[in-house]
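Appendix C reproduces, verbatim, an entry submitted by the partner laboratory led by Prof. M.T., so that reviewers can inspect both the input and the predicted structure.
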Amino acid sequence: MSKIFTPTNQKLLTNVVVVKLKKGGKRFEIACYKNKVVAWRNKIEKNLEEVLQTETVFTNVSRGEVAKSADLKKAFNTDDMTKICIQILEKGEFQLSEKERQSALNAKFTEIASNISSMCINPTTQRPYPVSLVEQAMKDAHVSVKPNKSAKQQALEVIKVLKESIPIERVKMKIRISMSLPDSKKCKDQIKGLFLTVVSEDHDGQFEVVGLSEPGNYKQLAELVGKHSRGKGMCEVIGVEETAENAVFS
């Protein structure tokens, strides 16, 4: 029966986080190093050898019971142990200590604030907010971090919450649209209606308009152009509005 190797001066499984996945009616487990599972899922750690204590797949890590090859093949449709371990690592369940859980939440809290700082400005000063100020505003608004939701997704939700307490706006996209004049007749009013400001408009040979729009309108603009030009038109982001600092936002 295969056992996990641990140094003689260390108790068995002292530094192990067990990741469990139920698949095909059976439970499979892998043994990982502490702190590394979260780092892998957050794409901070990319070296699998730094995450797994062993590429062995178990039915019970604590008892050292190894999963049968036939069961693994049936459940995962492969006998490649690396691929199986990655599936368990990415989809399985595991328990963090309270300290690890709090550390992960703190890191995601800061990542959300950083995303907001890069996407938004104070409309009064036309400058981006420092991350520290965004973090304080989030704390004042009692924002709760969701560990299983991406920081970018949560940032978009938190911006709506922060608007109730501080002046904050997303940076506007500068979008250029071009299509044939006949095609534009069907949708140019709708297109211009989705711009907050029309920077330029040209009807010489073809319809071309450049304007500032909320980032959330880009998909609708692209769909309008694609539908009415039968895929021949163009909708592209060419930049963002200039702020007092000429900051570049992603």
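The first helix runs from residue 36 to 41. Additional entries are available on request from the coordinating office.
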